[in-house]
């Protein structure tokens, strides 16, 4: 099927929820993808930080195929070995005590917010249920997570939103004022991806953790985009020297298959009980088998390689004409550029490079396995577009 046929079917039958770029991706290897037109593209987007081992990774594929040969779905009324094994791996790597699996980042965050309210209700009774979220945040598109998203542009059309959510800048005086005496949790992204790839100040995050502990307010770290090796450590919060009460993740966790995870640490390990929450497809054995392969390969040595690749790309990008600032952490890179970001992304596509945008910035989240040759080729295209 050629591109025009694919586009025609999409236009006729799919909901018009996405403003798509004019390309249909049909295959590839690692960070080099192929369009339906036969053209090759260097991938600096990895499906929005999802395909962390790139396209068509042999070891990852084998893990998926092996599980497909056994059973493709198990109801959560029953035990499933891949789900239990993945939970063990995540807990042992992070210090978490328990995990709830879902299908996406929004679902993982929904679980975290519900758990925070349940924790506070069981300990303090009704009324202490406020969620404090940061301005500029993005936590998903369910009604609760959309409410928790601290950007006005997402708060159109869907009133009434979930009550009991307030917003603050990354400033402790403002956090204390907004939280008042009825806050049960503060949810943060150590790197705010959708609003420009901005890493939070370490002094603020450290002070926030201390305040949360002193006031028994749960600290939730949304690692949906920044987690699973993206920033050079397994999770970005590790670089801040903190221990959250709940961590959420998704995107790259299963390397390209749907999954979300909500990790509960010591204080919250028993916040949810039987019947409090659930998911038909959460913890799917195929997705969990894929995620076991991912987490198993994110070794200390692998993460050091990610740090090296990030340092290489960032050093190159800082010297580009048209780049005003390089933000983010690791291979979660934001570029403040002199040209309109969407114009840059469109021009990159024309020249064989896939990049993303985040507000007025260009966003780069390549596969963690990207080669130096692929980095150099993509950087060369981007440099030419920015000049």
Write a structural description.
There is one protein chain. The chain has helices spanning 3-13, 46-49, 58-68, 81-94, 105-124, 143-148, 172-179, 202-215, 285-297, 300-318, 341-350, 372-386; strands at 25-29, 32-35, 40-43, 98-102, 130-134, 165-168, 183-188, 191-192, 198-199, 218-222, 246-249, 260-264, 323-329, 332-337, 353-354, 356-358, 361-364. The protein is of the alpha/beta class and 387 residues long. It folds into 2 domains: 3-56 and 301-386, Aspartate Aminotransferase, domain 1 (Alpha-Beta Complex), CATH 3.90.1150; 71-297, Type I PLP-dependent aspartate aminotransferase-like (Major domain) (Aspartate Aminotransferase, domain 2), CATH 3.40.640. A hairpin with a 2-residue loop joins strand 16 and strand 17 (361-364). Helix 3 (58-68) runs antiparallel to helix 9 (285-297) and helix 4 packs parallel to helix 9. The chain starts with a helix and ends with a helix.
Mean pLDDT: 98
- What structural class results from the helix and strand content? alpha/beta
Strand order of the largest sheet: 4-12-11-10-7-5-6
Number of domains: 2
**CATH class group of the largest domain:** Alpha Beta
| Topology, number of strands | 17
User: Distance between termini?
Assistant: 36 Å
Topology order in helix (H) and strand (E) letters: HEEEHHHEHEHEHEEEHEEEHHEEHEEEH
Full CATH superfamily name of the largest domain: Type I PLP-dependent aspartate aminotransferase-like (Major domain)
Shape: globular
Which residues sit in consecutive blocks of at least 5 with pLDDT less than 50? none
Amount of beta strand? 15-25%
How much helix, percentage-wise, in residues?
25-40%
CATH architectural arrangement of the largest domain = 3-Layer(aba) Sandwich
CATH topology descriptor of the largest domain? Aspartate Aminotransferase, domain 2
> What's the helix count?
12
How would you characterize the largest beta sheet?
7 strands, mixed
